[in-house]
Amino acid sequence: MVAARAQVRAVGQGGFTLLELMVTLIVTLIGMAGLLQLHTSMARANEASGRQLEASGYAEQALEQLRSLTLAELITEYSALPIDEDYDTVSGRNGVDFTRHVSVIEVSPAPNSLIRLRVEVSWTDNGAVEGSADGIYDHTLAVELLRAEQGAQ
What we know:
4-stranded antiparallel β-sheet
């Protein structure tokens, strides 16, 4: 009679089999792998967004420097119009170098005397060499504005 009770308890006890635990473990690992991939892609997108924001800041800074100069000062510093010059290279966060290019052209001659100021900022992601892998790591951001020549009516 005691042996019969022991058998009833053994059969009636609930628990997980090794197979059920393995299936649960595999499903959990697949879910974790998906979350890890999502985290990695979000980190890359965040990094790319940060670089674009940084490039935008460098472009705006250079544009404001150009904007503060009169046309005569621009010509003295660079050359006669049109101006098409490389600006200084700026080292950004995480060792990314941002190269800046400046162009100034006369859009309309006197009496309107409009000039276009344009700054292009270029950089390469992931430490790649510029132009490598068909340029998939190369980026360029441009900002520009039109202004009336100072002194024009």
